[in-house]
């Protein structure tokens, strides 16, 4: 029998104060082609009756079937058959408690509530409760203390919710150090794992959690559960936010600590959660279960496996505090699918690569209708192999924080492998042609490559620091567009295809890494004159960072010595470089900028030659080019077992052309 969600719960009653109707999600509408997108747009978006805030969307979903399960959580895979469960009625009640408690603590509409938490039920309560009372600010719990402090200051956080002291993690130690460096903080709320742990461990956990003390300097420290326990559960004590109010702050770098913080609105979040649903018909409804394994500081986990299913009365399964990274989660994944009858899950290429080699065995996984893939390009061979071996349809999608989350999705009935799908209804998405000075010239013709642009109701409200918006906006065709920095083309049927990235972000396992996080510590080393971090193609993670270094004239250093010296100063774990390459001269453009595409091509060539090593094949030459329509293409002239070489290179995202010699 499932454990009850909250042993301190007040009697729960279905809410009756929130407007918005479940019918606004337009059940029965499905998108199979661009004509369906255009047909939806014949009805004005304003006539769709979308809820005015994320709170109202959650309340509308809760009214569909209040006693139905909304959230199931297990702390480790040993407890996957004995989760803690919230019904929709209970989940909304605890969101009421959280929002009301925050307002009683003084959080107003423009106040920022930061959270540094792993994947816990309380993380969802904080996200939606803070959005209702003020502004929720997601901070990656893997960052070091200095980076967390930098973000808290940049976001002007007034309250912070984080993990209490817990064995096996130093989150509290890093966050408390950061809090001591943040003048804007008025208080900290701590979340402990006592209620989720086995009975034998609860006393020790409670004792450790109690060691936080009442203050950090002048900042008050209180327990989250105790603070929300006495707040009203059946209603809001204040008016809900409106669609134009800022709902959340999200760092655009994903795993970076740089203070580039996007401001999202309630209207944008509600729209985006609603607009993806017609692409995955029958995935989000009462009785359907959705697995959440991506981190909740990421927009995908919050919306695609949070707000979107809950707005339709569906069931979200939150698997361990570390999600897919949790011990044994991937090994037990197909058992989880069978236990909860998972209908849809969202992942990144590394997750699909890991699951490809884990057989479902005797588990009944027939409930799965779709798997959504985003955050990084998925190699076509992995795409095909996963579908053939598991029978699960993979729908590749595209989005960015500046577009709230999703901007395009492959339709379930007609997905195209390698494409990022069709644009969301009511959101404009196009390809722009720019000159060498990055001045917009015109929109591209079908299949003409250019820079991907988006405009519409999901576009964010700008960065906290407006200086970060230089070069971001394009005014064209009577609209304001976001320049995504991604290179793409659109075919005659409306499908979009990525062909490369104009921006230099390194994507490691779906995590975005700003090269500056790596380069700046290297530039502080006395032997380093210039440093350039780029992504090396990787069969498992998509890309891993490597650093090219040009030494100061007369200086001496080794790659191993530089890596050992600098790596400890790179605060983000995912940003730790795989290797250091010392070169005599970094390639530069005519105006003196480091030309990173040449370094990327060098890495691709090295990957090709490394893949051939040990095979009965001879590679005579490798020529890597940037194809405007297909992205990076490696042309190999080889003799011998060319088929084996082709198979060895299949897991990589770049294209290959092997010419027999």
- Round the Cα radius of gyration to an integer and report it: 25 Å
Unreliable stretches, pLDDT < 50, 5 or more residues?
1-26
First-last Cα distance: 66 Å
Structural class: alpha/beta
Task: Report the mean per-residue pLDDT as an integer.
Answer: 90
Number of DSSP strand runs = 32
Biggest sheet statistics: 10 strands, mixed
Helix content: 25-40%
Summed up, the helix count is: 17
Shape category: globular
Largest sheet, spatial ordering of strands: 1-3-2-13-12-14-15-16-17-18
As a percent range, the share of strand residues is: 25-35%
Put the structure in a nutshell.
Helix content is 26%, strand content 27%.
Describe this structure in words.
With 661 residues, the protein is of the alpha/beta class. Helix content is 26%, strand content 27%. The chain has 17 helices and 32 strands. The strands form six sheets. It has a ten-stranded mixed sheet with strand order 1-3-2-13-12-14-15-16-17-18, with helices on both faces. An eight-stranded mixed sheet has the order 8-9-7-6-4-5-10-11, sandwiched between helices. Strands 19, 20, 21, 22, 23 and 24 form a six-stranded antiparallel sheet that branches. Strand 6 (157-163), helix 6 (171-179) and strand 7 (187-191) form a beta-alpha-beta unit. Helix 2 (54-62) packs antiparallel against helix 3 (88-104) and helix 12 (349-356) packs across helix 13 (380-390). The termini are far apart.
């Amino acid at each position: 029998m499932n454990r009850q969600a909250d042993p301190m719960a007040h009697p729960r009653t279905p809410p009756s104060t929130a407007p918005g109707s479940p019918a606004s999600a337009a059940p029965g509408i499905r998108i199979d082609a661009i004509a369906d997108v255009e047909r939806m747009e014949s009805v004005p978006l304003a006539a769709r009756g979308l809820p005015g805030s994320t709170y109202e969307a959650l309340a509308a979903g809760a009214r569909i079937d209040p006693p139905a399960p909304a959230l199931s959580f297990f702390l480790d895979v040993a407890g996957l058959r004995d989760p803690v469960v919230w019904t929709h009625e209970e989940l909304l009640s605890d969101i009421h408690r959280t929002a009301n408690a925050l307002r009683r603590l003084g959080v107003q509409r423009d106040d920022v509530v930061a959270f540094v938490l792993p994947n816990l039920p309380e993380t969802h309560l904080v996200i939606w409760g803070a959005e209702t009372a003020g502004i929720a600010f997601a901070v990656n719990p893997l960052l070091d203390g200095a980076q967390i402090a930098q973000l808290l200051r940049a976001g002007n956080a007034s309250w912070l919710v984080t993990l209490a002291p817990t064995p096996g993690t130093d989150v509290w130690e890093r966050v408390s150090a950061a809090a001591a460096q943040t003048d804007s903080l008025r208080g900290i709320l701590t979340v402990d794992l006592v209620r989720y742990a086995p009975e034998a461990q609860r006393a020790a956990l409670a004792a450790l959690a109690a060691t936080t003390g009442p203050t950090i300097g002048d900042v008050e420290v209180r327990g989250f559960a105790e603070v929300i326990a006495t707040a009203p559960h059946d209603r809001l004590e204040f008016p809900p936010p409106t669609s134009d109010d800022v709902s959340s702050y999200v760092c655009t770098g994903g795993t970076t600590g740089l203070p580039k913080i996007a401001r999202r609105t309630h209207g944008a979040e509600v729209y985006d959660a609603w607009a993806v649903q017609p692409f995955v018909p029958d995935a989000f409804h009462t009785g359907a279960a959705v697995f959440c394994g991506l981190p909740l500081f990421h927009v995908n986990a919050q919306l695609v496996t949070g707000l979107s299913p809950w707005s339709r009365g569906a069931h979200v399964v939150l698997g361990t505090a570390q999600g897919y990274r949790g011990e044994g989660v991937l090994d037990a994944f197909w058992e989880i699918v069978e236990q909860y009858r998972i209908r849809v899950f969202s992942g990144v290429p590394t997750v699909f690569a890991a699951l490809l080699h884990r057989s479902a065995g005797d588990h009944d996984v027939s409930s799965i209708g779709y798997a959504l893939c985003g955050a990084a390009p998925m190699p076509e061979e992995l795409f095909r192999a996963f579908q053939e071996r598991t029978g699960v349809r993979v729908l590749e999608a595209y989005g960015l924080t500046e577009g709230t989350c999703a901007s395009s999705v492959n339709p379930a009935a007609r997905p195209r492998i390698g494409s990022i799908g069709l644009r969301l209804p009511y959101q404009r998405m196009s390809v722009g042609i720019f000159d060498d000075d990055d001045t917009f010239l015109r929109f591209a013709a079908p299949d003409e490559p250019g820079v991907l642009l988006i405009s519409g109701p999901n576009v964010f409200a700008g960065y906290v620091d407006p200086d970060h918006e230089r070069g971001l906006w394009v005014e064209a065709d009577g609209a304001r567009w976001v320049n995504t920095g991604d290179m793409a083309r659109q075919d005659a049927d409306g499908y979009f295809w990525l062909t490369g990235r104009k921006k230099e972000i390194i994507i490691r396992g779906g995590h975005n890494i700003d090269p500056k996080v790596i380069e700046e510590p290297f530039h502080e080393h006395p032997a380093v004159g210039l440093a350039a971090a780029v992504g090396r193609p990787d069969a498992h993670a998509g890309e891993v960072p490597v650093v090219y270094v040009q030494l100061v004239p007369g200086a001496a250093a080794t790659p191993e010595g530089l890596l050992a010296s600098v790596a400890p100063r790179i605060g983000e774990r995912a940003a730790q470089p795989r290797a250091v390459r010392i070169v005599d001269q970094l390639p530069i453009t005519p105006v003196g900028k480091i030309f990173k595409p040449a370094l990327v091509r060098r890495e691709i060539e090295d990957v090709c030659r490394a893949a051939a090593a040990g095979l009965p094949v001879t590679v005579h030459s490798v020529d890597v080019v940037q194809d405007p329509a297909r992205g990076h293409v490696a042309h190999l002239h080889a003799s011998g077992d060319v088929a084996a070489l082709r198979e060895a290179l299949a897991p990589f995202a770049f294209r290959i052309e092997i010419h027999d010699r």
